[in-house]
Each structure stands twice: as C-alpha cells, then as structure tokens.
Specification:
60% helix, mainly alpha, two-stranded antiparallel ribbon, 12 helices, 208 residues
C-alpha cells in the first residue's frame, strides 16, 4: 500500500508554509492545490473537466475563473488574469487544460516519472492504459486488508477502496488512468526531497 498519509500531511503543511513566501502566481496556485494533499491538483482538473461542456479540452477566462471559485481557490481576479495570460501562450483567449495541468503539477525528474510508470505498468495487467479491479486481482492481495479480515469488506470492496486512492476525488469511477496515477504521485513526489528516497519508496510499495 502506498504509505503516503504521512507524506500527504507533511506536504500540505509545507505547501501552506511556502504560500506565504511566494509571489509567483502559478506557484501560488500549485501550492494551494498541494495544501489539500496529493489529490489537490487532480481535484482541480476534475472541476475543469466538468466545466468543459463541449469537450474542447480548452477553457476561456470566464470558465477558468469559475473553476477556481468552484474549487474554493483564494485567487483574486488580477492574479487569475496573470495566470491565464501565462498559459494562453498564443493569445487566443483560451487555454489548453491538459497543458495547464502538466505545468501545474510539481516538476518531477525523469527518474521519478519512469519509476511511477513502472508501477503503473505492473498494475495495468491488461496493458490498456487503465487500472481496474480486474487488473488488481493478480497483483494486489486484498486478503491482508484488516477490513477483509474482519469481514467488513469483500475482496472487490478492498480493491475499489484501493483504486479510490488514485482516482479523481469527484469522479470515482473505479478506473485509474495514467494521468490520474501520475497526478497522484506528483503530489507525493513534492513532499520527498531526493530521487533516491522516492525511488526506494516506490520500489518497496510496489515490489518493483
């Protein structure tokens, strides 16, 4: 099990502390997301996805501000405009929200991205780019889970709870995409200083 509750708390505290020190608007938004734990950026991406009615995967300024407000981000209009301008590279009046999320994600070294993908590939038994309960059957032993042992949960409920860790908080569909997995671990990664420690943690968690 990815033992990240402690990292999550540490990261949230660290993010809140750094918020008072930074003036960079993108960094401030990133820290506000991270202050909610590793699922913070994922949560914001979910809000934007709901607002993208026409599935264009782009947002105009009004949608962008509404998304930030819906997610209760403390950002004033000037700051929002500045962030929007940074992301609207071609000045078209819209931003590509995939690009926005990748930039908002805390930067990770290639070594970290590679070990995250190794873990993903190990879990994605069928190799279709999505982790489901079916994929987990062969790789994750539910029988060690305390709630399975005391009869509260079935094996499938254990699997589902496990997937919900990585799933977008407002869209728990029991499927975890590469992007969701990466977003989750980008959050975890932000609380771990060295690549070596991060890689050891991943290897131990996933027996890589």
């Amino acid at each position: 099990m990815p033992g990240t509750a402690r990292h999550d708390r540490e990261m949230a505290i660290q993010a809140k502390r750094n918020l008072s020190k930074t003036t960079d608007p993108v960094e401030r938004l990133r820290l506000q997301c991270l202050a909610r734990g590793s699922a913070g950026i994922k949560g914001l991406s979910r809000v934007f996805r709901i607002m993208d009615d026409d599935n264009s995967r782009t947002l105009d300024f009004k949608e962008f501000v509404k998304g930030l407000n819906d997610y209760a981000m403390m950002i004033d209009k000037e700051e929002a405009q500045e962030i929007f301008r940074i992301f609207d590279k071609d000045g078209s009046g819209t931003i590509d929200f995939d690009e926005f999320l990748v930039t908002l994600r805390p930067p990770m070294s290639n070594a970290r991205k590679e070990i995250i993908m190794q873990a993903f590939r190990k879990l994605d038994k069928t190799g279709d780019g999505v982790i489901t309960i079916e994929d987990l059957r062969g790789v994750y032993n539910a029988k060690h889970h305390p709630k399975y042992q005391n009869g509260d949960w079935t094996e499938d409920q254990v699997f589902r709870a496990f997937l919900d860790n990585f799933d977008s908080p407002y869209d728990k569909d029991g499927k975890v995409t590469t992007e969701e997995f990466m977003n989750y671990y980008a959050g975890v990664s932000a609380s771990i200083d060295t690549d070596v420690y991060f890689i050891i943690m991943m290897k131990n968690a996933w027996k890589l």
